[in-house]
């Protein structure tokens, strides 16, 4: 069977005040139905932009996006419309995408009405089912967004996405704004729903621990480029790019070698300006292992496992 989603060499550049910003640079991956792709990186690494390119909320400058066997890269908004319900997005801040004057029930029903799903009575019945399915009381349908907690609102956001029976759901930092105890509940809910409805997820997060827990495939992004990519198990067992290793510090998966561990702990600096990316390997100003070749020459992607690739001069 062919993958549900194929992203091929997709690039996105923005022009801002006459300057060019490479937001996403030649990203490729494939994702099978029912699986999760984790996209990790700091803010500004291009992961949200990549999510929007996949959904065709933004147009890529280069590359191809194939969804469910169909090349959607050049479809017009009108041609995209019937596909919209198959591809949904869950945001970090669900309230931002909800009208403050619409009740929760109306907001979920509205999502279905826009796509001509069912009669009004059928949609209202479905609102109740969906609220229960995401662990909320059906009385929530009479509430307004400001009356719910962040965790409840995120469940509503999930219910709204689910109301359309999507195939692909992009989860863009869906738990980052929630308390830790609530984060776990929402993660478990997303997992259950994936199983029950064979959902395919792109899970965007800066939290590598959550990505490790949820993902089948992982891509680590830095300044719009994938620096390491592969099956989650393989990548987490053998994190090879220094940036991945830095990110992994936070979940205490450090290299065995004590010197290497010390070098990674002392990493300095912020993510550089995407308008003026560093020469050679764009990670070199922050990389404890950088050498002259790193400052001069852009590393090429190398396979370090059957499907595990790393873009670093040190990889072999
Ligand atoms: Fe560090 Fe050089 Fe590898 Fe870039 S190519 S991550 S600077 S070692
Ligand atoms: Mg983002």
Automatic annotation (TrEMBL):
Database matches in Gene3D superfamilies: P-loop containing nucleotide triphosphate hydrolases (3.40.50.300)
SUPFAM superfamilies: P-loop containing nucleoside triphosphate hydrolases (SSF52540)
SMART domains recorded: AAA (SM00382)
GO biological process terms, semicolon-separated: peptide transport; transmembrane transport
InterPro entries cross-referenced by the UniProt entry: AAA+_ATPase (IPR003593), ABC_transp_ATP-bind (IPR050319), ABC_transporter-like_ATP-bd (IPR003439), ABC_transporter-like_CS (IPR017871), Oligopep_ABC_C (IPR013563), P-loop_NTPase (IPR027417)
Keyword Nucleotide-binding included in the entry's annotation: yes
CDD domains reported for this sequence: ABC_NikE_OppD_transporters (cd03257)
Domain called ABC transporter: residue spans: 5-248
Keyword ATP-binding: yes
MF terms (GO), sorted A to Z: ATP binding; ATP hydrolysis activity
Family to which this protein belongs: Belongs to the ABC transporter superfamily.
Protein name: ABC transporter ATP-binding protein
Species per Swiss-Prot/TrEMBL record: Alicyclobacillus hesperidum
């Amino acid at each position: 069977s062919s993958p549900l989603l194929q992203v091929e060499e997709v690039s996105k550049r923005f022009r801002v005040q006459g300057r060019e910003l490479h937001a996403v640079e030649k990203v490729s991956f494939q994702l099978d139905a029912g699986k999760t792709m984790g996209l990790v990186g700091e803010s500004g690494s291009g992961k949200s932009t990549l999510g929007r390119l996949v959904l065709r909320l933004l147009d890529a400058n280069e590359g191809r996006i194939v969804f469910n066997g169909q090349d959607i890269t050049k479809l017009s908004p009108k041609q995209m419309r019937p596909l919209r319900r198959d591809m949904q997005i869950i945001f970090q801040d669900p309230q931002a995408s909800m009208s403050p004057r619409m009740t929760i029930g109306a907001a979920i029903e509205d999502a279905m009405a826009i796509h001509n799903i069912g009669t009004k009575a059928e949609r209202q019945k479905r609102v109740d089912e969906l609220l229960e399915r995401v662990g909320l009381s059906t009385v929530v349908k009479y509430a307004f967004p400001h009356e719910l907690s962040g965790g409840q609102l995120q469940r509503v956001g999930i219910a709204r996405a689910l109301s359309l029976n999507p195939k692909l759901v992009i989860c863009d930092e869906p738990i980052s704004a929630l308390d830790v105890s609530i984060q776990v509940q929402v993660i478990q809910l997303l997992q259950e729903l994936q199983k029950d409805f064979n959902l395919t997820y792109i899970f965007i997060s800066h939290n590598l621990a959550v990505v490790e827990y949820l993902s089948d495939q992982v891509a680590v992004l830095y300044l719009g480029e994938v620096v390491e990519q592969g099956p989650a198990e393989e990548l987490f067992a053998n994190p090879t790019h220094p940036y991945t290793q830095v990110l992994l510090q936070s979940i205490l998966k450090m290299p065995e070698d004590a010197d290497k561990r010390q070098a990674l702990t002392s990493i300095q600096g912020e993510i550089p300006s995407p308008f003026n990316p560093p020469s050679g390997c764009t990670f070199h100003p922050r990389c404890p292992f950088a050498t002259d070749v790193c400052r001069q020459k852009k590393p090429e992607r190398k396979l370090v496992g059957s499907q595990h690739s790393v873009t670093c001069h040190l990889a072999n």
